[in-house]
Design brief:
about 325 residues, alpha/beta, Rossmann fold, UDP-galactose 4-epimerase, domain 1, 2 domains, six-stranded parallel sheet, three-stranded parallel sheet, 14 strands, about 45% helix, globular, binds serine, L-threonine 3-dehydrogenase activity, Epimerase_deHydtase
Length: about 325
Amino acid sequence: MMGRILIIGACGQIGTELTKKLREVYGTENVVASDIRKGEPEFVASGPFEVVNALDFNQIESIIEKHEVEDVYLMAALLSATAEKNPAFAWDLNMNSLFHVLNLAKAGKIKKIFWPSSIAVFGPTTPKQDTPQYTVMEPSTVYGISKQSGERWCEYYHNIYGVDVRSIRYPGLISWSTLPGGGTTDYAVDIYHKALSDGKYTCFLSEETRLPMMYMDDAIRATIEIMQAPADSIKIRSAYNLSAMDFTPKEIAEAIKKEIPDFTIDYAPDFRQKIADSWPQSIDDNSARQDWNWKHEFDLTSMTSDMLAHLSEKV
Ligand code: SER
């Protein structure tokens, strides 16, 4: 019997669905959800839940001991748009939570770590199309700087201390069950909600802003697959490029129009435009495909049908 799993930041956009899926795979009692505060009552009641501040080393350590945790998924972070509004706190949270978990692994208290990186590690000087795994990386956002630094530390802890840490550079993630919190790619979730509730949407990015994106089902499967892969197949210990689709606001609006013909969109770019303009438009993820057999399933059309079907059931 393996040890238990702890998810830190379990009430967020990824954490909620990751918790659900990990419980299906490993059993509810073996997956401990945690967050800085209690989330939806239904979620908190659905299995073991702890209130944990990701910046409190002792708290994390005692939860790990209490539940005999072996694997930690550290999903707590401030995303790109929110981080620009509070750079010092974003740096503190994004870096020090990672150090806590890396140091627990270094001390032999946990066996394996998943830590999410992002396309935000790339910057304006990075090649924008089919961005390679290894390329120029000069992130220009606080969030990107923290993710790039985090990647360096993950690789360092692996090389110097033998820590088994695994990471993915997520593209923008689209999901129906939980709203994203403070990212630049959030428009691609909001647009579906507004299409159903108002029949129209005002986008905070311009119509031709192309960004790499992925449906949450694929992202969760990738996360579980990279953690299940044999350690020697994980050859990259910074973070893997990961890709499924890329589109512009205009293209996602057209996909929605096929299902909701009267849907309309207009554009009012704000400060997030500059963040989006610094990121890649598409990603080359051959290393993930080769090393641990990554394959995406959803494209823009299949994602749009699935999103609208689920969201219509909810309202
Ligand atoms: N989706 C994230 C954001 O927009 C990128 O990792 O901040």
